[in-house]
Specification:
heterodimer, A: 86 residues, alpha+beta, 2 helices, B: 176 residues, four-stranded mixed beta sheet, four-stranded antiparallel beta sheet, 4 helices, 10 strands, 31% strand
Chain lengths: 86, 176
């Protein structure tokens, strides 16, 4: 029976106001296996309080997701502040 | 969902259109420098088209009562190109257009420089006008790109200032 991984690592991408608040565009974050996007958001909100404003969106592997989505090893999670392209 | 990342040559060239009378020309790119508008417009037109509509979004000097020194644009390029291609698919589902090209740049923009160029080709102008309006409206809702306004006395990332703007983004995404 294969061992169940206790921990996963996800690649976090930060942009614009989130990037400036964090002082970093990329973070590698270890999480307990089974963690959801909301758990990652809570963990990062200490460093980036604006993440809790609930106006931004979250993308996992370049698709917008809801916060209850489960994360997996090597997922790319992007925290996306309100957009203003164009 | 298919993702097109660059200019494509239809296997029919410019001669034989597909059953709907359209060949398939598209370009969805984030670039970090001036936009090559000649290449962009060249990527969409086919011999079946009577109209090519080009929208240029350009940096303006006055915003919210302040004078802009310059703009800065940042993108999540891999995802932005993917979402722009999805907008292209939405357009093709709604209107009989031939080609859709959307190119947005990042970096520092002086007043008057283009941040985004959209080109739509179609046999007739009605659908080309409608599709190009949709393309820029939709891009502003859902594509992961951010604008920073820089003034003499400060700067701000645009997007947070209106609750309705954030709601539009959220509802726009749920329709993707």
């Amino acid at each position: 029976m294969p061992e169940v991984a206790q921990q996963i690592r996800v690649h976090v991408r930060l942009f614009a106001s989130y990037r400036e608040a964090a002082g970093a565009a990329r973070l590698d974050v270890p999480l307990p296996a089974g963690s959801r996007v909301a758990d990652l958001q809570a963990a990062l909100a200490q460093r980036i309080p604006a993440l809790n404003a609930a106006r931004g969106l979250i993308a996992v592997n370049q698709e917008y997701v809801k916060p209850d989505v489960e994360l997996h090893e090597q997922d790319e999670v992007a925290f996306i502040p309100p957009v203003s392209g164009g | 969902m298919s993702f097109r990342g660059g200019a494509e040559e239809s296997r029919f060239g410019t001669e034989i259109p597909r059953e709907l009378g359209m060949t398939d020309r598209s370009m969805f790119k984030i670039v970090d420098g001036p936009i090559d508008e000649v290449a962009l417009e060249g990527s969409v037109r086919t011999d079946a088209d009577g109209a090519v509509i080009v929208f240029r979004g350009v940096a303006r000097k006055f915003s919210r009562g302040r004078e802009v020194v310059h703009l800065e644009y940042e993108a999540y390029p891999e995802m932005a190109e993917k979402v722009m291609a999805e907008i292209g698919n939405e357009i093709k589902e709604r209107w009989p257009v031939s080609g859709v090209a959307i190119v947005h740049r990042t970096g520092v923009l002086e007043v008057g420089q283009a941040s985004v160029v959209i080109a739509i080709s179609a046999p007739h102008r009605g659908e080309a006008f409608a599709a190009s309006q949709y393309a820029i409206d939709r891009l502003k809702q859902v594509v992961p790109i951010w604008k920073k306004e820089v003034w003499d006395d400060g700067s701000q990332w645009i997007g947070w200032e209106s609750e309705s703007g954030a709601r539009a983004q959220a509802s726009g995404v749920s329709e993707l």
